[in-house]
Design brief:
Layout: H1 4-34, H2 54-61, H3 76-83, H4 92-105, E1 122-126, H5 138-142, E2 146-150, H6 159-162, E3 168-171, E4 184-187, H7 192-202, E5 221-223, H8 226-236, H9 246-257, E6 260-264, H10 293-305, E7 310-312
Parallel strand pairs: 1-2, 1-6, 2-3, 3-4, 4-5, 6-7
Helix pairs in contact: 3-8, 4-7
Length: 315
């Protein structure tokens, strides 16, 4: 027979086990209320970009609103960081006056849609690397819902490798190109003059045969916030390089726009050259300039390894 002492100890252990079971059940029920199970649908894709991951979720959670709008203005501290990118000489006051004029001309606020279990938004971010030559990625790129092209990335003559469709075109004044009536103009402003250029490009003027002004749909203009640029530089790149490249900022932006992101045309070609698929490289010593190209590429590789993006590196 068990001694009285043994019986008491066993009883206490049983009571403790029951208490732990009920406490665990309560904790689990609370956890399920606040955090959906892994296999719950955040979107209708096979794998949703925003599925929880400690590293990725922390980076994305630190993001400000990507686009400038009347309700999303920047601080003077952010302006002072931004003005150093291109040695901006204008004041914060002048910047704010210019932004007010921009909002008067472009009052439409194009909000980003949140993920939904009944929708799968796919993005193709098409860079301009020479590794696109001979890739035959064209049909695959065209299969995506949102296709973001960067600066002067050409289509005509390169359709087999880069596709034919464009939904968003990233540009700034020196890389501007005319757009059709259905393509979003995604302005990445690096100085106040870039915002003034936008105002002048859409200002009413007398049309002539010789008019070579920018052609684009005024209602589809989107302007990246300097605060988002700073966020990419500080949070993603840990201040490596003077400021992020246009391509890398486009990639980070795309992850706010879509549930699945595919990346094409980033990195050096097969010979290690950082060139464009539509140009003959003359300076083979050209690397990534003011940008932390190696750091950016390492992050793209990590996003791919963490299954947050699909990365197509060419052939």
């Amino acid at each position: 027979m068990c001694s009285r002492k043994t019986w008491v100890v066993m009883s206490l252990l049983c009571l403790t086990a029951i208490g732990v079971f009920y406490r665990s059940s309560w904790i689990l029920s609370v956890y399920r209320d606040f955090f959906p199970p892994y296999n719950s649908s955040l979107c209708a894709c096979d794998k949703c970009l925003m599925e929880y991951d400690p590293w990725f979720s922390e980076l994305m959670g630190a993001s400000p609103e990507p686009f400038l709008s009347p309700r999303n203005i920047i601080s003077e501290e952010t302006f002072n960081w931004w003005k150093r990118i291109q040695s901006e000489r204008s004041s914060f006051s002048f910047y704010n006056t210019t932004v007010e004029k921009v909002f008067q001309m472009f009052p439409h606020s194009l909000n980003l849609m949140e993920s939904s279990p009944d929708r799968c938004r796919t993005c193709a971010v098409v860079g301009n690397s020479g590794n696109l030559n001979g890739s035959h990625y064209g049909p695959l790129i065209d299969f995506h819902d949102v296709i973001i092209r960067i600066n002067r990335g050409r289509i005509k003559g390169y359709e087999k490798d880069v596709g034919t469709r464009t939904t968003h075109r990233v540009m700034y004044p020196t890389s501007a190109t005319n757009l059709d009536n259905t393509t979003h103009l995604l302005l990445f402003p690096f100085k106040t003059n870039d915002l003034q250029w936008l105002l002048k490009s859409f200002a009413p003027r007398q049309k002539t045969i010789a008019d070579s002004g920018l052609k684009a749909n005024k209602d589809l203009v989107m302007i990246l916030s300097p605060a988002f640029m700073k966020y990419v530089h500080y949070v993603w790149l840990k201040r490596k390089g003077m400021y992020p490249s246009t391509g890398f900022m486009t990639l980070i932006l795309s992850m706010h726009m879509c549930d699945e992101v595919s990346v094409f045309g980033f990195g050096a070609d097969r010979y290690g050259n950082w060139d464009h698929y539509y140009e003959i490289l003359k300076n083979k010593q050209l690397k990534t300039g003011n940008h932390g190209g190696n750091q950016e590429y390492a992050i793209i590789e990590k996003l791919y390894q963490q299954q947050k993006i699909t990365f197509f590196k060419g052939w």
